[in-house]
Amino acid sequence: MAYQKLQVERALTVVPSDTINIPNVAGPSVSGTTDGGATNKLVDSSASFTSNLLGYIVYNTSGASVATVTAVDDENTLSLSADIMVSGQTYTLYADDNPGCVLYAGNTGNVHVLTAGDDDVTFVGIPAGSFVPVQVKRVFTDTTATDIVALW
Predict the structure, then answer these.
(1) Contacts made by residues 63-69, CB under 8 angstroms, sequence distance 24+
(2) 91: nearest Cα among 37, 150, 134
(3) Is residue 74 one of the residues assigned to a domain?
(4) Mind listing the pLDDT tens digit for each residue in 77-128?
(5) Can you tell me the distance from the alpha carbon of 8 to that of 102, in angstroms, rounded to the nearest whole number?
(6) If you average pLDDT over residues 136-147, what whole number do you get?
């Protein structure tokens, strides 16, 4: 009997979003801890943010939330598309250039995705501990399966 052999080298816990893609963990990234707070801002006085971060995806690694960089206010402050950061939380900034990844679903449910070919599809009744061997760019918020991991 044949079986699928899946070998990966990178992984990221997925934060579902209706508008933001899964970031590419193999691309450039910046990490840190916030030390200031303002609505829709990421403030890190030890950072040296540059204008090339515009459009980057921000993962709040303390609170499992996601936003995009809408402006670089100065070398220590970024404007975000959503209010996801407070002082003392950790973050990672990723480029939005995910060519597609496969998914692992830790718990049973439906998985609503945007494929690498821009097809909007729902995989119904994915069993716990299953792989979704389709190149995916985004997992939507109406997904009922949980503990989803993106794999490259």
Answers:
(1) 63/89, 64/13, 64/15, 65/15, 66/15, 66/17, 66/20, 67/20, 67/40, 68/20, 68/96, 69/42, 69/93
(2) 37
(3) yes
(4) 999 999 999 999 999 999 888 899 999 999 999 999 999 999 999 999 999 9
(5) 9
(6) 98
Q: How confident is the model at residue 4 (pLDDT cuts 50, 70, 90)?
A: low
Do residue 109 and residue 146 come from a single domain? Answer: yes
Q: What does the H/E/C string look like for 57-125?
A: EEEECCCCEEEEEEEEEECCEEEECCCCCCCCCEEEEECCCCCCEEEEECCCEEEEEEECCCCEEEEEE
Domain match, 133 and 86 both: no
Cα–Cα distance, 110 to 90 (Å, whole number): 30
The pTM score is 0.89
Q: Per the structure, how many domains does the chain have?
A: 2
Question: What range defines the domain where residue 108 resides?
Answer: 11-17+98-151
pLDDT at position 5 is 65
Q: Which two tokens stand for residue 82?
A: 């959503």
